[in-house]
Amino acid sequence: MFGAVLLLGILIMTFIVPLWYVKDPGDLIARPHLPPGSEGAPFLGTDNLGRDLLAIIVYGGRTTLRVAAGAAALIVFVGVTIGATAGYYGGWVDSALMRFTEFFQVLPGLLFAIVVVALFEPSFWAIAIAIGSISWPGIARLTRAEFLRLKNLEFVKAARAIGASDLRIIMRVILPNAMPTLIVSTTLIMGSAILFEAGLAFLGLADVNNPSWGLAIGRAKDFFTINWWAVTFPGLAIFATVLGLSLVGDGLQDALNPRLRGR
Amino acid sequence: MRAIVARIAQAVGLILAVIVLNFLLIQIAPGDAATAIAGDQSASDPEVIEQIREQYGLDRPILVQLAVYIGNVVRGDLGQSIWFNEPVTSLLASRIVPTLLLSAAALGFAVIVGVAVGTAAARKPDSWVSHSVTILALIGFAMPAFWTGLLLLILVGVRFDFFPVSGIQDNDFEGNWFEALLDIGQHLILPALTLGIIYLAQYSRLSRASMLEVLESDYVRTARAKGLSERSVVFKHGLRNGIIPVVTILGLQFGAVLSGAILVESVFSWPGLGRLAFEAVTRRDTPVLLGVLLLVSVSVIVANLLTDLVYRFIDPRIRVSGGSSD
Fold it and tell me: Where are the domains positioned within chain A?
């Protein structure tokens, strides 16, 4: 419940607040390093260049959430396709696909994403693909496990007996039954995608024309001795979003898979 | 025995695949491979490009190039750093020890404190300790490591001179080896704590779940029934089995820890592999960046292999069932 409220708050902040808090987060509006609450300072103070920190946080959320959503969509698509194919067909298809998955699993996640974004340009899609390419193995293994568990059950046999095609069985018969587990882990994956995006942006691997939470912290980090707020508040936004997603994931877990409650 | 050979062969295959991936990354990066290797500074100099083209054999067919590349990597030749103009291998060698030190300290802290807290929580599943473990695990996961590090610096580092805010040693350090160790240790505390908090959260949650299960098992009930002291039951019978999942995860998480070290190292200017990777990104030093990726990937594969082999040794059940981890 608390998680849902937290997430709703973040969504309102990033998508509704900009409708009346109309500011350009790139504008230099006041003196640099103005603490929040001081005279002439905007609500959360200014950063090292004199930009409005609140505007950066409010508008920066869009970049972060958009990249995370794009990455999550890729992760689910690739992970479910590979996991479902491997689990449903089994045999050599399964072993080949699982070898492939294993390979991506040993790649050091963040480092691989850094290399991909550094070699290509830090555009929206490069970042989403970089994050997607390191995070799909978890979903693939999970989908495979669900398909292995479900594919020999009565209702699947029944569907096969009435002549349903493989594609139909995968998409319409088995997948809906695997959904509860997949929804829970997609929520958690969104959280880690946000952390990856923030980490990349913190290192400067982001589109520098768009404000983002990680980028803001990366720029503020050299001034932490005199400007604690420019580091603290964008981080708080990341923290609240990821925490909200984890809590919602846990809540969904309890609601959708009641047997696992309390674990 | 055959399973062990197969497992080693698999690891070798994975290492080969990582090398090929590295090669492919150079190939598919936008622009000419020679320009990519040369980086921004010298990209406009046709002579440099020509030299690189020749040096890396870029004028030859792609499969020949791949074979040459694999040969070079196997012999430990990862090319020259553009920025330092030094072999990548020697740069990596000089940076690996600080990273291992940081990772080991972080994991040591996380395992010891995490297992202690998790065990305490499992003994009283409804106490406040137990509930706070669950909450702390969520908080630990949601905090970006670089932010945790900066917050520690703001809250502790700036206020107390005892904690140095950057580097591995004081710049003007003088003294014997013992003072040197103390100095490094002092520099190590904040970065290790930052990196450790993520895993502390995970291990306390994991060991809580695992100990909850173990403490309900028959052999623990038997141990209690024959009148052993509570301490003996929990530590000798319970913990020895309850800690197994933690050890497994520890081996598998090696890569994630090294990845996390990148962010933490760049916050604390810790002179390790992560800092090197970060510098390579800002200086567009592609050979160094790919070198770090290769080294870390290979370390992960070797660490996984060792975990697996050690496991076969310790736990006969894995030996019999063929060692599949899922």
Answer: 2-10+46-261
Q: Give me the interface pTM, i.e. the ipTM.
A: 0.86
Please report the pLDDT score of residue A96 as a whole number: 92
Q: Is B84 near chain A, with CB under 8 Å?
A: no
Its CATH architecture, for the domain A2-10+46-261, is: Orthogonal Bundle (1.10)
pLDDT tens digits along B267-313: 888 888 888 888 888 887 888 888 899 998 888 888 888 888 877 77
**Could you say which residues from 127 to 156 on chain A have a Cβ atom under 8 Å away from some Cβ of chain B?**
141, 145
Q: What is the enclosing helix (H) or strand (E) of A87?
A: helix A53-89
Best CA proximity match to B121, nearest among B201, B17, B60, B25: B201
Specify whether the CB–CB gap between B164 and B188 falls below 8 A.
no
pLDDT greater at residue A148 or residue B326: A148
Contacts of B255 in chain A (CB under 8 A): 106-109
Cα–Cα distances in Å, from B23 out to B19, B286, B297? 6, 12, 14
B166: left (phi over 0), alpha (psi -120 to 50) or beta: beta
Q: Chain B: residue nearest A205 by CA?
A: B281
pLDDT of residue A9: 83
Average pLDDT over residues A50-79: 88
Among the partner-chain residues B142, B260, B282, the one whose CB lies closest to the CB of A239 is: B142
pLDDT in tens, B67-83: 888 888 888 878 777 77
Q: Tell which residue, A201, A235, A121, has the closest CA to residue B145.
A: A235
CA nearest to A117 within chain B: B281
